[in-house]
Amino acid sequence: MLHYQIEFDDYRQHLVHVTARFLANPTQVLSLPTWIPGSYLIREFSKHIEAVRAYDEDGRLLQIEKFEKNKWRLFNTDHELITVEYDVYAFDLSVRGAYVDQSRLYVNPACACLGLVDQEDTAIEVEVFLPPKLKHFQLATGLKSKSLVKGRYTLYADNYAQLIDAPFELAEQTRFSFEANGIPHEFVVSGKHAMNAQRMQQDIEKICSTEISMFGSAPFKDYTFMTMATANSYGGLEHPNSTSLISPRDDLPKASEPVEPSADYQRFLGLCSHEYFHSWLVKFIRPENFVNYDLNKEGYTSLLWIFEGFTSYYDDLILLRSGVINQDSYIKLLKAQIDRYLQNPGREIQTVAESSFDAWVKFYRKDENSNNAGTSYYNKGCLVALCLDLGLRLRGSSLDALMRKLYENAQNGIQVNERTIFNLCNELTGDDWLEQINHLINTTDELPLDQLFPEFGLSYTLKNDKSLPFGLKLADKPEGMLVQSARRDGAAAKAGLSANDVIIAIDGLKATVKLAEKYAKQDGTYTVLAFRRDELMSFEVKAAGSELSEVELKVEDQAKAEKWLKA
Ligand SMILES: [Zn+2]
């Protein structure tokens, strides 16, 4: 048994005090993950570990040596009961970290609980002690738990992998319980908010039962949604039987929420639907090399277009299928997804398989060049899923059927590799899909949306979008007009202007976004004066029609559309 005691008495200074007790191996190594599954960036969680001390059974101080950035070693400790104590600095509000203050105690064990190398399968008990002033806080977690005394909780994990994939929160919470297909669910919200809980429950129940019914069963026995309401933050992280969400409080349903959810609330419902879908796709159905994560280094896969892309396709589609949004809303969400794709010049540079593989150094490390050079495995992956779904339906099958095959395989211990989608499409239709799927995932050729939509009663028309003058995303600032990003193929970038330049004059007039928009629509060459750092530079920008496209997507034949949308 590995036992952690977690105390929050220094919550005002954002400190978590951890005491780990265990029977040590000879030269026992302790290690902390460098990343957390579901978020593909080396986070170096160990940077927040402070003052590590080790003691023997009699309380004598032992030598503990740090020998790698995230690893510590004890010596001659064979079968001794060892205590290791340390503090964790916890002031990261993200769903990946730990956050502690007077309003909330939130811990991802991946960033707080040192693990025992070569004892990863040991059963784990975590005892949580609330400070006297916060004894009324309620607990939310996907882990099994029990509380015999007020202000004290015990959490249980079968092994270390389960522990670090289950965050827990203690806070003043708004919560409700419900059942979906007989499975108990908890929905928990903390932070300042005025959520209409009744409406939330009505919608989330439909979403959950639609997803369970699609797969036929669920890979969990209970499920917990944990949401932190904030001003502007947005994000989610999936776990096997829980999810941690952070959302703008304005995205939560209001007392006066209209029958058709507002765009803000649709975004929150989509986030819930997305993370819940991950319980099947990525937590249970996994890339082969994610079956045992090595949390000491990057875990590469070129398959995130499946795990994030398909999930992004289903998140909104499930909202429609469950009746939570209507068809017009769904078509709008799909249009936005297609516009994002069309307006991203990087789609001509990077394939969606490359984008998956490079998540660690590109997708999770965005900069001013990202849109010019990269494609998103969420965005393009979603549209690849759409193309596959429509293509499979034209041959008498569907992506739903493929998802159920993936689920059945995973139940039999068969996980996903580079060949899986090719093989399953073949199995479902009897056709060879090699060339078609290669085209979607291993080339930067345009997607065949213009050919597929008409088969399902939708017209697909491209029009020019003039929203970016000279290919620049601009913002008026007191010091001038700031270039937030520059499309590589735009008139301004071709003339040499870059992201972070501050434009002060166009054609001898004070630069404003309004003026730039006016000039961009006319033909002509303009002298643009801009500061790069503190140096004034001059550029000759030749205005030309915008290359940007947006799509007009219309249902022309409702009966044909329903063959896809009402499936
Ligand atoms: Zn996701």
From TrEMBL:
This protein's UniProt keywords: Hydrolase, Protease
Domain PDZ: 459-535
UniProt GO molecular function: peptidase activity
Database matches in PROSITE patterns: PDZ (PS50106)
Record bears the keyword Hydrolase: yes
Gene3D superfamilies hit by this protein: 2.30.42.10, 2.60.40.3650, Neutral Protease Domain 2
GO annotation (BP), single: proteolysis
Superkingdom: Bacteria
InterPro entries listed in its UniProt record: PDZ, PDZ_sf, Peptidase_M4/M1_CTD_sf, Peptidase_M61, Peptidase_M61_catalytic, Peptidase_M61_N
The protein, known as: Serine protease
